[in-house]
Design a protein that fits this description.
326 residues; single chain; two-stranded antiparallel sheet; alpha+beta; elongated; four-stranded mixed beta sheet; 8 strands; Ubiquitin-like (UB roll)
C-alpha cells in the first residue's frame, strides 16, 4: 500500500511537470507567432514580380532615288520608326559620301516640298518600304553665317565712308570742309543699330541650325551693303547739307531713334523667351516694361520699332536713302 501511494505521488509530480512544460512551450509559441505576425505586417503586401515586356521595334527600308534621273542611289535598311529625316541624311551620307547632309534635300515625290529635318519616318511611312527622292541643293551656308555677314558688312562699310577715304571723296574737298555734328551723331546711331543686330544674333535670337543656299547669302548681303553704301555716301559727303530745322530736329529725332532701338531690343528678348502654358507656347503679352506696351497696339512691335528707328534716322539726317531703307 505504501508503494502504491508513492507511485501515485510520483505520477502527480510528473503530471504537474508536464503541464508546466506545456505552458512554457505554448507561451514561447505565442511569442514567436506574435513576433512573426508583426514582421509580416511591417513588410507590407507582397509586390508581384513585374512581367518583362519585350518591345517590338519596327524597322523601315528607305529607298533613295535621284530626283532628276529617277534612278536608285542606295537603300538604307534597319531604319527605326523614331528616326528623323536628319538621321536618314546622316546614314545616306555614310552610304554615299558625295551626298553631304547639308546639301541634300529629300522629297516624298518629285516636285514636292522638301522634308524638314525634324520629321520622323513613322509619320510619312505608308508601308515598311519608304521611297524618297534626293536633290542636290548646291553650296549651303548656315543661317548664323548669313546674319553675321549681313550685319558686319554695313558696320564696316559705313565707317569707310565716315573716314572719307580718298578713293571715295575728293581729298582736298574733304580737308577743306569740316563735318557737321549730325554726321558724327549719324555714325554713332548707325553703329549702335548694327552692333545691336550682331549681339542679338549671337546671344538673343535662336537661330536655326539649318542651312540655306549660297545665293541667299549673296542676295541679302547685296541688299544690306548696297543700301548702307548709298546712305553713307550722302551723309558723309563733304557737300552734305545739315537738317533744315537745326538742332531741334536733330535732338528730337536722335532721342526717338534711341527709344526705338531700346524698344526693339526688349521686344526681341521677350520673343526669344516665350511664355509656356502646358505644352503650348503662348504669344508674349505686355508686362511691367513700358517698351512692351506696344503689344496693345500691334502684334509685332519689333517691326514697328524698326521702322521707327529708320524714320527717326531719316529725319535726323534729312536724307532720302534712309527713308527708303525703312
Amino acid at each position: 500500500m505504501f508503494k502504491r501511494q508513492k507511485s501515485l505521488a510520483s505520477e502527480r509530480k510528473r503530471g504537474l511537470f508536464s503541464q508546466r512544460a506545456t505552458r512554457f512551450i505554448l507561451r514561447d509559441d505565442m511569442r514567436n507567432f506574435h513576433f512573426l505576425s508583426k514582421l509580416v505586417l511591417s513588410a507590407g503586401p507582397l509586390k508581384p514580380t513585374p512581367a518583362v515586356k519585350h518591345s517590338k521595334t519596327t524597322h523601315f527600308e528607305i529607298e533613295i532615288l535621284d530626283a532628276q534621273t529617277r534612278k536608285q542611289i542606295c537603300i538604307l535598311d534597319k531604319v527605326t520608326q523614331s528616326s528623323t529625316i536628319h538621321d536618314v541624311k546622316q546614314k545616306f551620307h555614310k552610304a554615299c559620301p558625295k551626298w553631304y547632309p547639308s546639301r541634300v534635300g529629300l522629297q516624298l515625290e518629285c516636285g514636292g516640298p522638301f522634308l524638314k529635318d525634324y520629321i520622323t519616318i513613322q509619320s510619312i511611312a505608308a508601308s515598311s518600304i519608304v521611297t524618297l527622292y534626293a536633290t542636290d541643293l548646291g553650296q549651303q551656308v548656315s543661317w548664323t553665317t548669313v546674319f553675321l555677314a549681313e550685319y558686319t558688312g554695313p558696320l564696316l562699310i559705313y565707317l569707310l565712308f565716315y573716314l572719307r577715304i580718298p578713293c571715295i571723296y575728293d581729298g582736298k574737298e574733304s580737308a577743306r570742309r569740316l563735318r557737321h555734328p549730325v554726321v558724327h551723331l549719324a555714325c554713332f546711331c548707325h553703329c549702335i543699330h548694327y552692333i545691336r543686330y550682331l549681339l542679338e544674333t549671337l546671344f538673343v535670337h535662336k537661330v536655326s541650325a539649318g542651312h540655306t543656299p549660297l545665293k541667299n547669302l549673296i542676295t541679302s548681303c547685296a541688299f544690306y551693303w548696297g543700301f548702307t553704301s548709298w546712305i553713307a555716301y550722302y551723309i558723309n559727303h563733304p557737300l552734305y547739307t545739315p537738317p533744315s530745322f537745326g538742332n531741334r530736329q536733330i535732338t528730337v529725332s536722335a532721342i526717338n531713334f534711341l527709344i526705338c532701338e531700346a524698344g526693339n531690343h526688349f521686344i526681341n528678348v521677350m520673343l526669344s523667351h516665350p511664355n509656356h502654358t502646358g505644352n503650348n507656347a503662348c504669344f508674349p503679352s505686355p508686362n511691367y516694361n513700358p517698351f512692351t506696351w506696344m503689344f496693345f497696339l500691334v502684334s509685332c512691335p519689333n517691326y514697328t520699332y524698326e521702322i521707327g528707328s529708320w524714320i527717326s534716322f531719316t529725319v535726323m539726317t534729312q536724307t532720302l536713302p534712309g527713308g527708303l531703307t525703312a
